[in-house]
Amino acid sequence: MSAEKISIPKSGIAGLKENWKTDILSGFLVSLIALPLSLGIAKASGFPPVMGLWTAIVGGIVASFFGSAPLTIKGPAAGLIVICAGAVEAFGGEAIGWHLALACIALAGLFQILFGYLKLGSLSDFFPASVVHGMLAAIGIIIFAKQIPLALGIAPALLKGKTTFELILSIPNYVLNLDKSIAFVGLISLVIMFGLPQLKSKIVKKIPPAIIVLLSSVILGILLNLGGLENALETMPLLKVDNLFGTLGWNIDFSGIASVHFLKYFIMFLLIGSIESLLTAKAVNGLDVFRRKTNYNSDLIATGVGNVFSACFGGLPMISEIARSSANINNKARTYWSNFFHGLFLLVFVLLALSLINMIPNAALAAILISVGYRLGSPKEFIYVWNTGKEQFIIFVFTILVTLATDILMGVSVGILLKFIIHAIEGVPLGSFFKINFKLENNQDDNYFIKVSDVLVFSNYIKFKKILESIPTGKKITIDFYNSKMVDHTVMENLHNLAVGYERAGGVFEIKGLEDHKSLSKYKYATRIKFK
């Protein structure tokens, strides 16, 4: 489809009038996906389950009007479960911990707004791809390990204080001590979550597996009388969701602001939440058939506004979430009104269907989260990173192991440090990590020719990207790496993504001069080094 034939959807009220049919339908379908995920994420995070719905409602009804990524869906994310649960535990447990954790989330939201105004939306470009993959895989493994016992009917009280490694090693014991009725619901739910997407039927593929899980698990819960299974071990077979307006209020507590825990979790909510949200916005930007260019700074502001508003009244941290955003695009959404309607439908559900929501078995929510965790840390992810290069795989594995042994912030920090060390071993001068040498030429035909010298790696790429983004659209950009000693994997992937976006907007983007560089793997965007 040529650029001339694409009619960009209008925004604002004009966009609503023009696209309300497709956006309402997409918003409704996305809300069906968001409903169980929001409940499960909140419960796994140590927050009241209804606060997961509140976060998604705010992400739709409030944050929609502040960002420039029109097709992203904002709400609670599985990738932040580990941080939320850690903050709640550090601040004293579920009774009071979530109130203190809210202060970290709200302050992180304020800084996201500030970062947006300071035009720091390129923050995510600094983090090496292998570190980001390792962080997400570690989060997936943690979710997987923590939810398996719950899907088997093991009492949550028996899981307190156990590390991820201990949970994984205890799985055989949990299987031997499972509750048959609860485990049956969990097993059926897992079969649906993993089996339904494998069916080739086009009709079946349009139905969110999580909705089938909820409906079938409610029926099974009634047949198995799960509501009567609560016992001395505090097994909670069914979800307990309070009335939204009975839970909403000024829930935030700033009394822990001077503690070490506050600083730690504030940084994690700010950095990890911003990175995940910006990465999603970038991915959605590439999928938008209308070739709209996202202003990442504005999207960061929108995320921050949503986080401040949500947290003050008890909500979880929100991001632009990739699975729901992808579903929004697949449902042919056209404007940000689809995100608005997704939030509106969730509000209707929580007001009119609370009794039905409270019939959902916890094992079903655990199964849904297990599938999410598996996607984040699946064997395919390990194979993919291995194929990008052995040095990338080392960084990936170290990031995972350190994250599992300590926390996300330490895992990411060690991953970045290891990346620096490997680059130093590969011959990158210390003075080149944050400095880039290049020459930009612009001829009379409006062609832009950039000659890069020395190295271009993740840590100096942001400066280079700003130069590229300053070039008008519709021109020809040629980047010559003949005199460059190294172009790392993260930069190669980022340049590819920039090239796709630039060419979709009608320009030409060419990379040359890598013929004499050695690729560290067969992967198309692997690190390239020029040896003397």
Q: What's the quick description here?
A:
The chain is an alpha/beta fold. The protein contains 22 helices and nine strands.
Description:
The chain has about 525 residues and is α/β, with parallel strands linked by helices. It has three domains: about 10-375, no CATH class; about 380-430, no CATH class; about 430-530, Transcription Regulator spoIIAA, CATH 3.30.750. It contains 22 helices and nine strands. The strands form two sheets. Strands 3, 4, 5, 6, 7, 8 and 9 form a seven-stranded mixed β-sheet that branches. The protein has a two-stranded antiparallel ribbon with strand order 1-2. α21 (about 460-470) links the parallel β4 and β5 (about 475-480). α1 packs across α3, α5 packs across α19 (about 390-405) and α19 packs antiparallel against α20 (about 410-425).
Structural class, from helix and strand content?
Answer: alpha/beta
**Distance between the ends:** 45 Å
Find the count of extended strands (DSSP E, 2+ residues): 9
Biggest sheet overview = 7 strands, mixed
Percentage of residues assigned to helices: 55-70%
Overall morphology: globular
Radius of gyration: 24 Å
Uncertain spans: 1-5
pLDDT average, as an integer? 90
Number of helical runs?
22
* Assembly classification: single chain
Query: What's the number of domains?
Result: 3
Which percent band covers the strand fraction? 5-15%
How are the elements arranged and paired?
Elements: H1 12-45, H2 49-61, E1 73-76, H3 81-90, H4 97-117, H5 129-151, H6 164-169, H7 171-176, H8 180-195, H9 202-205, H10 209-223, H11 244-247, H12 260-287, H13 296-312, E2 318-321, H14 322-330, H15 337-352, H16 354-357, H17 362-376, H18 379-388, H19 390-405, H20 408-425, E3 437-442, E4 447-456, H21 461-469, E5 476-480, E6 484-487, H22 489-504, E7 508-512, E8 518-519, E9 528-529
Parallel strand pairs: 4-5, 4-6, 5-7
Antiparallel strand pairs: 1-2, 3-4, 6-9, 8-9
